[in-house]
Design brief:
The chain has three domains: 44-259, Aldolase class I (TIM Barrel), CATH 3.20.20.70; 290-473, Rossmann fold (3-Layer(aba) Sandwich), CATH 3.40.50.1970; 478-677, Dehydroquinate synthase-like - alpha domain (Dehydroquinate synthase-like, alpha domain, Up-down Bundle), CATH 1.20.1090. Strands 1-2-3-4-5-6-7-8 form an eight-stranded parallel barrel, surrounded by six helices. A seven-stranded mixed β-sheet has the order 9-10-17-14-13-11-12, sandwiched between helices. Strands 15-16 form a two-stranded antiparallel sheet. The model is unreliable at 265-273 (pLDDT under 50). Helix content is 46%, strand content 11%. Helix 2 crosses helix 14 and helix 21 (555-566) runs antiparallel to helix 22. This is deoxyribose-phosphate aldolase. Its EC number is 4.1.2.4. Pfam families: ADH_Fe_C, DeoC, Fe-ADH.
């Protein structure tokens, strides 16, 4: 019989309860009910309602905590669990919501004095903290000082209950290991009037939550106390194993991943095993917010916690009002909005919000947003995009049109006037591929034209004043979008390093971008919460943007703009992926020597000679399939009968002839038709 089975522990629980009652002076009962095996305690509609969304790292930044609160609000988590230094900020963000503020004390060792713990609790309760997770004094318990352990818990419980705050007692079960000690810790918590027992801090060398421990804890406390499982719970399957064992609360830093898996969100899996990237990357601190100088007029703040720099941006620009341009959902889901709202409120800066931007934004939406912002526009008005390429490009367009009250998106993108001025622009980037946060380009779809068009806007006036790349905000980016945005970055550099105006600078950026994508995309596909992977993919995207800002683009983007003009909801990265292998094959004879070097991390073994063109094209297609991109023009409804129309649409779109003219090889109508025909 297993030492963790009910039958082997029922008698032991009753025996330990009687023993502790004889040794410990308490008003509480150690065993207020008969020991039974099963309980029906959890009428939750979803796992989200059971999750304590957690960040307890010692180097957690203020911005990360604010983002965590935003995610908890959007997903309906039970609480946000933070270190005491972040309690006030969490309370202020979560006030009035159903999400509770939880703080740890005595963490992670539990070995400080009872008086010190009580003082900490009293301060937190006064601040409005609604739950306390305390670490039991494991050393005293193992030494048999049961009265001292009981009194420690009881004093903290009393301090909590003065303010209707719940107490969870972390027993560090993997450290205790034996059923007897786990039982003792649970029964002492019951007698001391705690509200929950909790498995672990997640920081002990023996590991975190185990289902056997949760089950034993539930048998001990019955339905009088809650049971929280925490430590190493990284998936929906992990969480449900704990719930099945008797957990009523789940502590996890990967709550977003857990609820996504519950909802059945597709999780991409790399075709080859993921290896740890080079230790080279460890030489850079992802929590150090740096300022990239290229691609903005004042700076791109880059690193985990960069969103907190929004306050510095406001202090510098001193806006009379900020007009936010974004799409539905992402600006809140990522947590960016919670931080920005707080910073705006601290400075009493008014704002307008336009949240209707869609994939491949239309001129009609740009005009609607511009009209809204004109009601508050003055010389100190600031436009701020929150999102990926679509919101940022739309915001760039709005920023120009605010300076030209007689103009529209149509006249702007049909190049009927020179866009030499724009309102101050800030870009908060929420994807890792667009590059538009560090360049002077924008695209908008004019769907009412015949044929529908997706022209480009190029102007130094639309460099952002500031941009923000905070990898922490990318944790909720879905796997499919993670891949497609990385593919966008790869196309940027494939084209930039091979245009007729290429430079060694753009080629160096290209080489680094491809290496980073090769190293970190598989990691991000496997674990979207990996901040190092998010950081480096963000960097690769910025490098891609800088590369084509330097040396422009050519065939792939010219042809893709036609595809997404005709299919407005086609993701830009997907449109590029469907034609990129054919474009590589077309240009390889002229620039294979460059491409063989730049793309060696994902298609190795090529010498760059012209005869390799077809093989290189096939290798790139194979790599795209390996990361889950198997779409083709045919799967999206195009047939050979559409080829002539696709060529005509490309020729009709303003700016596309300019891109085609700097291709490394000629790209006339026949060449375009051949690329489109490879569907």
């Amino acid at each position: 019989m297993s030492e963790w089975s009910f039958e082997s522990n029922k008698a032991l629980i009753e025996e330990r309860a009687a023993f502790l009652a004889s040794k410990v002076d308490t008003e509480g009962e150690f065993l207020p009910q008969r020991v039974r095996e099963s309980f029906e305690l959890f009428p939750h509609h979803s796992i989200a309602e059971m999750i304590d969304h957690t960040v307890l790292a010692s180097d957690a930044k203020v911005g990360q905590v604010a983002v965590l609160c935003g995610e908890a609000l959007d997903n309906g988590f039970a609480s946000v669990c933070v270190n005491p230094c972040h309690a006030g900020r969490a309370v202020s963000v979560l006030k009035g919501s159903s999400v509770l503020t939880c703080c740890v004390i005595g963490f992670p060792l539990g070995s400080m004095s009872t008086r010190g713990k009580v003082a900490e609790v009293e301060e937190l309760v006064e601040m409005g903290v609604e739950e306390i997770d305390m670490v039991i004094n494991v050393g005293l318990l193992k030494s048999g000082y049961f009265q001292a352990v009981h009194d420690d818990i009881q004093a903290i419980a009393a301090a909590c209950h003065k303010g209707d705050t719940h107490l969870k007692v972390i027993i560090e079960a993997t450290c205790l290991q034996s059923p007897r000690l786990i039982i003792d810790a649970c029964l002492l918590s019951v007698a001391a009037n705690a509200d929950y027992v909790k498995t672990s801090t997640g920081m002990h060398k023996n590991g975190g939550a185990k289902a056997d421990h949760v089950r034993l804890m539930r048998w001990c406390v019955g339905d009088r106390l809650g049971v929280k499982a925490a430590g190493g719970i990284g998936s929906y399957a992990d969480a449900m194993a704990m719930v099945s064992a008797g957990a009523s609360r789940i502590g996890a830093s990967k709550g977003i991943k857990i609820v996504a898996e519950e909802a059945g969100a597709p999780m991409a899996v790399p075709a080859t095993p993921v290896e740890n990237p080079s230790s080279y990357y460890d030489g850079f601190d992802i929590n150090n917010v740096v300022t990239l100088k290229y691609g903005t007029s004042k700076g791109c703040f880059f690193g985990c916690g960069a969103i907190e720099k929004f306050g510095d941006i406001l202090d510098d620009l001193k806006p009379s009002c900020v007009g936010f341009v974004t799409s539905k959902g992402a600006y809140k889901r990522t947590g960016a909005w919670a931080v920005i709202q707080r910073i705006m409120g601290e400075r009493n800066v008014p704002h307008l919000l336009f949240d209707k931007i869609c994939t491949n934004p239309t001129g009609a939406l740009v005009d609607e947003c511009t009209e809204m912002f004109r009601s508050r526009f003055d010389e100190n008005f600031v436009v701020c995009a929150i999102g990926g390429g679509s919101p940022i490009d739309a915001a760039k367009s709005v920023a120009v049109l605010l300076r030209y009250p007689a103009e529209t998106s149509r006249s702007l993108y049909l190049q009927e006037f020179a866009a030499s001025e724009a309102a101050p622009l800030v870009a908060v980037n929420l994807t890792a591929g667009t590059g538009t946060e560090v360049d002077r380009f924008a695209v908008v779809s004019l769907l009412k034209e015949d044929p529908p068009l997706k022209p480009i806007l190029v102007s130094d006036s639309i460099y952002p004043c500031y941009s923000i790349n905070d990898p922490f905000l990318l944790r909720t980016l879905p796997p499919r979008l993670t891949v497609l945005t990385a593919v966008d970055a790869l196309n940027h550099v494939m084209e930039a390093c091979t245009t007729s105006v290429r430079t060694p600078f753009s080629a160096a950026l290209a080489q680094n971008c491809v290496q980073i994508v090769a190293d970190w995309l598989p990691v991000a596909m496997k674990d979207g919460m990996n901040l190092q992977a998010r950081y480096w993919l963000h960097m690769a995207a910025a490098m891609g943007g800088m590369a084509f800002d330097e040396s422009l683009l050519h065939i792939t983007h010219a042809l893709e703009h036609t595809l997404s003009a005709l299919i407005p909801d086609l993701a830009h990265g997907l449109g590029l992926a469907m034609i990129q292998p054919a474009v590589m094959g077309h240009i390889w004879p002229a620039v294979g020597n460059i491409l063989a070097t730049v793309f060696a991390p994902i298609i190795p073994g090529f010498k760059g000679v012209p005869s390799e063109a077809a093989k290189a094209s096939g290798a790139l297609k194979t790599w795209l399939h390996s990361v889950g991109v198997t779409d083709s023009l045919a799967t999206h409804g195009f047939t050979q009968k559409d080829v002539a129309r696709l060529v005509h649409c490309t020729r009709s779109c303003p700016g596309m002839d300019g891109l085609l003219s700097i291709s490394p090889v000629p790209c006339g109508d026949d060449a375009m038709a051949a690329i489109f025909s490879g569907m």
